[in-house]
Q: What sequence folds into this?
């Protein structure tokens, strides 16, 4: 049984239905990794690359929706909409062309893995794989993804940071 704290505070039925769809995707991911493990395949050998490819694809689509540029303001506008903010109980901490700092206070993926009885270590590993998609999105925008904290590691929230490397040098 997981000791990770991950309870939703927003109980709206529509938001709950959207969360259930995300949980279903996380269930697929877990079951694919579990079946592969039964066949002797280590998920770390294939899942991160496949999920990163998905993120690169999605990132390309998001850039087009945002007008083709690489501003992180466009990423916020196209992916981290108000409904997404409710689903993940997200706070936007910073958003400019070169930084997008988000705190997620709830994760439907972690909830799905908890429902399956995954250990905390399995949840941490599945989360690392899943975040490769966000890393691919970041790469599409010419950025790097940083994860100072995650719910899957037992932190109170996921601190998701999209950072453009040259902006990081200017901040120093």
A:
């Amino acid at each position: 049984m997981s000791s990770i704290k991950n309870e939703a505070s927003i109980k709206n039925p529509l938001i709950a239905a959207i969360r259930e769809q995300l949980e279903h995707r996380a269930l697929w991911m877990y079951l694919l990794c579990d079946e592969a493990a039964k066949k002797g395949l280590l998920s770390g050998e294939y899942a991160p690359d496949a999920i990163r490819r998905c993120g690169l694809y999605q990132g390309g689509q998001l850039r087009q929706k945002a007008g083709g540029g690489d501003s992180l303001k466009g990423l916020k506008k196209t992916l981290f909409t108000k409904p997404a903010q409710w689903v993940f109980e997200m706070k936007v901490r910073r958003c400019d062309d070169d930084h997008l700092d988000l705190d997620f206070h709830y994760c439907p993926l972690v909830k799905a893995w908890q429902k399956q009885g995954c250990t905390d270590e399995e949840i941490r590993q599945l989360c690392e794989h899943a975040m490769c998609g966000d890393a691919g999105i970041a790469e599409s925008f010419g950025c790097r993804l940083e994860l100072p904290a995650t719910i899957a590691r037992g932190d109170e929230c996921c601190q998701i940071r999209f950072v453009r490397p040259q902006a990081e040098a200017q901040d120093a």
User: Anything to note?
Assistant: The longest helix spans residues 13-38. The longest strand covers residues 90-95.
